Task: inverse folding
């Protein structure tokens, strides 16, 4: 197949130019202008569209095993493909917890059966995510785990976190931490501030996150271990990450689209679609998030895709679970609210969804360089669309962006040269042979 006449952006190669992409046997064979297609090759005209390496999400909750009514590996991978993702990392807070070699192997096998995205398991830090005894990192890594985390819960014990960082160094994987002091956050359901006071809801102070971020930075310096700070949301957290980088510590951090787009005002009149953890913060925190993206403090983006059933989210605000879905809106929110206003170039925004997360977790490199797997996304940066949760491929429907108009539509996603998603109504000119010669 030849994807002809698109704008090819590959941040890992500093490539951004009009070019054709030749794909053979599941791999990129050539990238350049006026490529000659082999006899019998399908040529697709993608002029006006972007061809880029597939997106990567380091922070996804797939719910399988144990809560398949909320999501499965297959449905989550299908949602990933619809959002332009070819690789996602699955958090271990399943039931039972992904805390051993067999559990990691199960995720790998389910991913292979689905064949829709490369699903990289993350193993638990502690057995059962109870925060008491370390899980066996070596066995999980040998089975395919790319990091360890108790996400959904913080690693409360500083001693256990220190030991985890030292142990993880042996296997060259990061410890991804959900930064939250549970004694400060206990009972909280949204950001602590004027909105929580007005609504009469118990708040979670920014300090609950910031204290644990500061602790993890200190422990990274003590141990030399690699800390990855998950879903950062507050100004002081961004400052702590910025300082850690200035001092050369092995600390990386991510944030999510909802933190650079929304504030606690979005909770409105108890809208559970705006309930997540960490919670939506203040306007000052949102602005600090954008600043940390722009100046390079934040290493990459993630979605923290956390699906729940509609019945669960229909409960009163205090009883509803934390979490929203994000895989199918991530690219649109990035183009609309970061690239559109001029905060980031399109190439830099794509880097934060492609090469940057791969560097953070040392995932196998996927580029558009000849010889690489043909894992790529094709999208129209100018196309506008309306977020319709009923059309999501995920089993989850909870999003605060329902009805929003976004710019940047995923047209197709390809994994190893095979289309895993093609958007409804996509039209492109095709021919069995190349129409232009080299």
Result:
């Amino acid at each position: 197949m030849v994807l002809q006449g698109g704008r090819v952006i590959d941040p890992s190669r500093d490539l951004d130019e009009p070019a054709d992409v030749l794909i053979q046997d599941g791999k990129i064979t050539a990238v350049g202008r006026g490529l000659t297609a082999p006899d019998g090759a399908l040529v697709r005209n993608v002029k006006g569209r972007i061809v880029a390496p597939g997106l990567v999400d380091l922070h996804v909750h797939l719910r399988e095993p144990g809560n398949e009514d909320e999501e499965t590996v297959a449905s989550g991978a299908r949602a990933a493909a619809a959002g332009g993702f070819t690789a996602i990392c699955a958090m271990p807070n399943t039931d039972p917890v992904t805390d051993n070699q067999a559990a990691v192997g199960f995720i790998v096998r389910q991913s292979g059966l689905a064949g829709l995205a490369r699903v990289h398991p993350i193993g638990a830090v502690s057995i059962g995510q109870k925060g008491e005894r370390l899980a066996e990192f070596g066995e999980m890594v040998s089975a395919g785990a790319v990091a360890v985390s108790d996400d959904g819960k913080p690693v409360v014990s500083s001693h256990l976190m220190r030991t985890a960082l030292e142990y993880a160094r042996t296997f060259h994987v990061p410890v991804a931490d959900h930064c939250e002091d549970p004694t400060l956050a206990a009972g909280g359901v949204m950001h602590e501030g004027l909105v929580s006071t007005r609504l009469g809801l118990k708040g979670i102070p920014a300090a609950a996150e910031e204290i644990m971020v500061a602790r993890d930075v200190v422990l990274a310096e003590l141990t030399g271990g690699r800390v990855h700070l998950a879903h950062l949301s507050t100004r002081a957290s961004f400052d702590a990450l910025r300082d850690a980088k200035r001092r050369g510590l092995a600390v990386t951090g991510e944030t999510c689209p909802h933190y650079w787009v929304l504030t606690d005002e979005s909770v409105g009149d108890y809208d559970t679609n705006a309930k997540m953890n960490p919670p939506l913060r203040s306007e000052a925190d949102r602005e600090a998030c954008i600043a940390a993206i722009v100046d390079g403090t934040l290493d990459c983006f993630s979605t923290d895709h956390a699906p729940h059933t509609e019945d669960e989210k229909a409960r009163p605000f205090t009883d509803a679970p934390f979490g929203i879905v994000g895989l199918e809106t991530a690219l649109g929110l990035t183009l609309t609210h970061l690239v559109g206003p001029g905060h980031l170039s399109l190439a830099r925004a794509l880097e934060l969804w492609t090469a940057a997360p791969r560097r953070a977790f040392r995932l196998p490199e996927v580029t558009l360089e000849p010889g690489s797997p043909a894992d790529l996304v094709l999208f129209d940066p100018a196309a506008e669309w309306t977020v319709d949760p009923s059309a999501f491929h995920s089993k989850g429907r909870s999003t605060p962006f329902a009805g929003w108009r976004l710019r940047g539509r995923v047209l197709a996603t390809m994994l190893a040269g095979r289309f895993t998603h093609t958007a409804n109504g996509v039209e492109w000119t095709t021919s069995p042979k190349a129409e232009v010669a080299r």
About this structure: The first strand starts at residue 2 and ends at 10.
